[in-house]
Amino acid sequence: MQSKLTRNALAAAITLLLQGGMGTAQAAVNVQCPGDTNGDAVPESVVPGPNGGTVKCKHLVAGDGFAQMSDGHPAYTFGFADKTGVAPADVIADGILAARWPGSKIELDQGDELFLSLTNVGTVMRPDLFDPHTVHYHGFPNAATVFDGVPEVSISINMGSTLTYYYNNVEPGTYIYHCHVEATEHMEMGMLANLYVHPKQDETGYGGNPNTVAGRKGGPGPWGYTYNDGDGTTAFDVEAPIQVSGFDGEFHDASILVQPLPFSTLETNYPQINGRGYPDTIKTVAVDPLNPGPGEMGAPVDDGFLGEPGAVLNNGEVSQDMGSAISVNAGQKLLLRLSNVSIDRFFTLTAHGLKMRIVGTGARQMRGITGKNIYRDVASVNFGGGETHDVIIDTTGVAPGTYFLTAMEFYQMSNKTQLDGGLMTEIVVN
Predict the structure, then answer these.
(1) Beta bridge partners of 271
(2) Which pLDDT tens digit goes with each residue over 372-381?
(3) Under a CB-based contact definition with an 8 Å cutoff, are residues 299 and 313 in contact?
(4) Residue 347 half-sphere exposure toward CB, CA atoms < 13 A
(5) Exposed (0-12), middle (13-18) or buried (19+): which is 296, by Cβ within 10 Å?
(6) Is the pTM of this model over 0.85?
(7) How does DSSP assign 329-380, residue by residue?
(8) Which residues pair with 338 in a beta bridge?
(9) CB 18 within 8 A of CB 25
């Protein structure tokens, strides 16, 4: 394992190589974003979309990095990171060893057009790899296969190159995005993220009543709606994306050690919510990632497995910057945007002491062909890889206190040991 200085020197050398400073082909960091004049994916002016929304842009990088498991072990990862606002000349250097787990959340409104640029910055810790990457907007009705991210029918992005995807977001709901190249390996390694689209009803309200316009759009109504329900039954006051997943520790260790990958024995032994195991799930991001305080998530650190105990990884940045601690006031409705991105197992979640209502699944409101709501009141939600569910918890009449959202299987509430991690987080009712 290199020291931080050595890793930075390596990153600089790879940046020079990708940018053509060693006689190679010029890297193509070419962001397309309407209204943006300097290539940083931030429009200098608001550009209206054709469907009543606006044009939005985002620039992601795909590369490698590390994530700290709740038992202190650093897992080598591939992942996405948001570099929106970074000048094109700086993107590759800034994006090296910047992988986030999970990747950066994408949140949109129905009618928005999204121009999503992805730059492949390579895998610094595995310079023998030249893997291409893509973005697959899972469950989205994409009219153009070229932007679908499935390599057999669309474009894959080679190291040092950039591609801008275009999405016309005409349907609200909870989605995910992930890399679809060598999907089993790249998804296991961490190329997964949350994505959801708010409905038009947030802006218009329902029933012609201006008092139903959502609070997130400046109205007096609830904070938002999950779907264009027409009756307010998918309203919520607090929302929380909850992405369940897991790592196979042996698989990730084999990858950083350049050993054969154990696909045939792949098994999740680090179950996680939003890339963390309990109690890391409820930690806040450290103000100083190199010196995290109690209850803070800092930069990943080598536990000795990589040869330098205490060495700071990911260039001193917090790679797991998405917690899952939830706080609501008594009487409010909580929307859980559940997604399972595991590649080897189903998970079953339950909110102990709280009632759960599924109002949507697979980015579709649960409504019959006659227009009748067919919501399901459940004690737990069982779902497999690639599935999403929209679950509302109504805290009316619920006693204030701390409630737990956990896996139903006890062994999934630990990470390799009986003491650390697992699928558990807290819902605090104030």
Answers:
(1) 246
(2) 999 999 999 9
(3) yes
(4) 34
(5) middle
(6) yes
(7) -TT-EEEEEEEE--SS--EEEEETTS-EEEEEETTEE-B-TTS-B--EEES-
(8) 242, 389
(9) no
